[in-house]
């Protein structure tokens, strides 16, 4: 597919804000127009399309990740939020932060220092106490804790659930995802925490080019999803964020 439009613009329509491509509103696969909660998000989407190559050059939807998130939120999550909530709760039942190494001590100390405060935060914030184990043997989590996490997710808007649908599987942790959503962590902090084991191994055995490439893609996905979440919620961007 090639870029077929010259200009992307934000317009106010009777049903809300929309982004047009050469005057034609963008539509979802189901045929309805894509709408935006506020002007900051709509303008960010318009910029995304404006920067997606040049007219006549190859185009793919990978170039417009926030648009894909907006479409997912409107056409899928908003229609059946419970399905998204349950998919995310399943990560709480096997959260990365609950599975600790049994050695070496240097690694286990780092896990305790970086991971335990987030589990403590989840208990204080949501009443969700999660059990910790060593190794890979599954540990069952209290149903009351999973219910508390479910309630927290159910209270979120479709846009936030769509963003967490990217972040949580990518990081392997519902707790880290919720901490990002609430501003308890920023994306670089979240990546450092989620990739602690990999980064430790890299320290000991050296860098791996493919692993570094995967981390770069992961970081971009997380940054984009959290930026979308914050814009959707009307959180003003700091200087420099819009250029990311």
Automatic annotation (TrEMBL):
Chain segments annotated as transmembrane: 155-181
* GO BP term, example: proton-transporting ATP synthase complex assembly
Q: Does the keyword Chaperone apply?
A: yes
Record carries keyword Ligase: no
Q: Which Pfam families match?
A: ATP12
InterPro entries, per database record: ATP12_ATP_synth-F1-assembly, ATP12_ATP_synth-F1-assembly_N, ATP12_ortho_dom_sf
Superkingdom of this entry's organism? Bacteria
Assigned keywords, A-Z: Chaperone, Membrane, Transit peptide, Transmembrane, Transmembrane helix
The entry assigns this protein to a family as follows: Belongs to the ATP12 family.
Under which name does UniProt file this protein? Answer: Chaperone, ATP12 family protein
